[in-house]
Amino acid sequence: MTSPIKKDKQIGDVIIQIRNVHKQFRTPRGVVHALRDVSLDIRTGEVVTVIGPSGSGKSTLLRCINRLETFDRGDIVVDGIPLHGAKNINRIRTEVGMVFQSFNLFPHLTVLDNIMLAQRVVRRRANSASKEKAMELLARVGIPDKADVHPSQLSGGQQQRVAIARALAMDPKIMLFDEPTSALDPEMINEVLDVMMALAFGGMTMVVVSHEMGFARAASDRTIFMDSGMIVEQNTPDNLFDNPQHDRTKLFLSKIL
Amino acid sequence: MGQSAKANQDAPVPELIQEPPTVPDLLLGMARRVPWWAVLLFLLIFWVGIDMLNDKNDRDILDWLADRPEVNTNELYDVVYEVKTEVLLVSETVRVRGLDDVSVTVPIQQVASQADGVINCPEDAAEGCLSQRGVVVTYQDFENANRESPDGVVETRGLRTGVVGPLVRVTLADGVQTVVAPNDIVSEEEGVLACNPIAVPDCESTSGQIITFNRPYSLRQSIRVRADARIRHLDDGYEITIRPNRILSRREGTLECLPDAVDCVATPVTFVVYPERIIGTELRGENDDEIQVRTVEQQSVQISRDRIINMEIGMVTCDRSEDPRCRDYEGTIVSVSGETFSGRLSTESGSQYDLILEGDAEATEFERRDIKEELRDPDGCTATDAVACEVTITMNDSTVAGRIIADNDGGITVETVPEKIITLRKGDIYSTTARTYKTCALNNPRGCNAGIWLTIIVTLSAFSLALLIGLLMGLFRVSSNPILYHLSTFYVELVRGVPLLVILLYFAFVVSPQMRDADGIIGDITHPIYDTLTKIEVQVLGNESFLAEAVIGLAVGYGAFLAEVFRAGIQSVSRGQTEAARSLGMSYFQSMRHVILPQAIRTVLPPLGNDFIAMLKDSSLIAILALPELLQQGRLYSTRTFQAIPAYNAVAIFYIVMTLSLSLMVRAVERRSRLP
User: Fold this and answer.
1) Which of A92, B221, B329, B596 has the fewest Cβ atoms within 10 Å of its own Cβ atom?
2) CB-closest option in A68, A153, A163 to B676
3) How many Å apart are CA B398 and CA B416, to the nearest integer?
4) Confidence of residue B109 (pLDDT cuts 50, 70, 90)
5) Separation between Cα atoms, residue B556 and residue A132, nearest integer Å
6) Residue B640's pLDDT is what?
7) Burial class of B448 by CB neighbour count within 10 A (0 to 12, 13 to 18, 19+)
8) Residues whose CB is less than 8 angstroms from the CB of residue A18 and which lie 6 or more positions away in sequence, other chains included
9) pTM
10) In chain A, which residue's Cα lies nearest the Cα of B597?
């Protein structure tokens, strides 16, 4: 099952290059090897979904891409800039938008201010320009009437759509989604997935950690299965879900399907 | 309202007919929201405030409560003028201390050089010798001259006054006697030795055998302890010692002789200009380039409390024959009971006694007409009796008229000299510092700087400073930089473990003396920070005090608690907020400024409010530094009048009024800042 729009999409050059990345967490109970020798290339316009059991390192991998986590060994190059020892990490982060499981909207600001803040402070856009951009994005995610309310007055799905709009306001080249729907009520999941799908078909480079099979099949070009900090298997979503090669993948899929 | 609108959309509910509320209903509704104690509080403030402002006598609240006449301790010396005044430089000296810990005063003429540096102990130094750092003064030392290898010689002239063995006794021009070895004598001749009228006023030049001799000296190095300049006012001969760094300019000149002086020789002298302090109130000047200042010379009389019979306000008259510029003024007339002396009768005549007072070796004279009553033991004894005649006499009652400038446990201090009007040329004024010298017990609605106002000033300034320290240290406490983290943790743990009272005493008596000048005289302080602090203290309290130390101590003590409050506030904002802000490309400071702190502030506002109220109460601890804040003034009032109950009641009421109104404000702020 493939979408007709997906075929028209232009897959371009490699934009994220991950080479032999290792990451260890030192906890009081010992060292956890979160990433073991992970290598991955993601091309412009590509949509990659990452699945795997809890603690398999998928979120860590995602957070390493915009360096919310540091890594111990290996190299990650984003848009031509190596992250290891990068001085202007904030410039890279403006190119990489991130959407969190728990939305992380700023509760003391209205929806509009949430979307405008980083534009004004980081991009140094004028008030009027950033407001225009924010209103345009709110219309795109389908809640233009909620501009002046505070996040706590919104439903989970609305909050996550605001979070997507906030990330998009920085005009990122890459969007990272860390389990964007897992904190949502089932009836709100689709409104978020619709926005993400529209984004994917619009040609955005996306890395999505999610177990939403429907989204993976419909929108993503590649699905990666991770376990114990390693990439166990990667394939097109249809092939991976329908015809898994590794036993570990089979076991995992048998449990979630 | 939002709910009813929604309900209307969902289903056609029959619309409720709402009557417009009547005015009494509205008032009742508003009244129900105001707590009863706030009403009481308001009435109390209103009642006290209105009545106090209506009080024509400007009495303090405690005088007002006890319905006592005002003890007039209100004095207003408006301005401290520093006027450029030319005086005669009599002598300049530096006090130096050697490695042997012996201090000597060296005339500036003998000083070869002064510079910051270190004196190292010589190799053959005694054990325990410590090298010293400071201003190293190299000076000519005549006492410890080394004759074998003289460092230098100076030629001095003196009058030969005699011979002691092989040495010649010589009197120098300044009256000092010295002896000279024969081989140091350069020449001897008959002549007139010009006297030094600076060193010896009223001296006469003498003629005789003038000896010119060499004085050998060695150069010695010591650490400067302090420098002094002795100056003499040209008009009245008044001499004081000032610090040389206050001298504005110097001029070499000659002191001419009076026309009728005998054998007088004009002497070369140094004139210096220094800012003389004149404290007074400005009056309307005669013309544009002059101002007139009414001053009160600070000659004061201390009267112990048990000798005061009566005090009343009245006109203090001055003696115009003595000072034509003086004016009568309204002041306090204090009737003082005569002092009592007892001692052994030495001699006795018709008009006076001589008594040898206890502990004294010599007799003291007493005029018989000054004595109110006497008591002899044994009864009726005389000076010629075989046994010692012990006499106890009580002097007559007297009156001291003037202004009360201090009123404390030891008694009252009265300034007795009438005020003077002097004219200052505006061009001569070097600096002016406004200063209100007004004290009162607890409060005084018109321009009081002690009591409740000082409590408020100290609390506000200390809390602002503590907020700064707390925010900075709170940020350091959540910093990933190990140096900042450990530094702030050390500060917090250290300060939280020490009682606030100890911190206050520590700042006042350990830290501050290290930073203030050795003598700590106002105006002669050289440290710029402390100079500024002192100026503030003089502005607020009219004199130098521990105000700065109290504010800093309170701020440092509370900074540790506020740091923990801020740390908790910052940590209460979830990690996701930082991550979201950083993932949008904000820097650490941008995310702190725009995302974390605005949320943390809402969390910390209630504890901050509580800490502010706690600090208001803890500001009473500074009473131990003798600062005249609310509690101290209450205590003084209580000891002065023995009215402990109204004094401490009033103190407590004032604190309650302040803390309760503050908690109302904190609640209001808290309500407003709550997130929707």
Assistant:
1) B329
2) A153
3) 13
4) confident
5) 48
6) 66
7) buried
8) A38, A39, A40, A41, A42, A61, A64, A65, A74, A75, A76
9) 0.57
10) A108
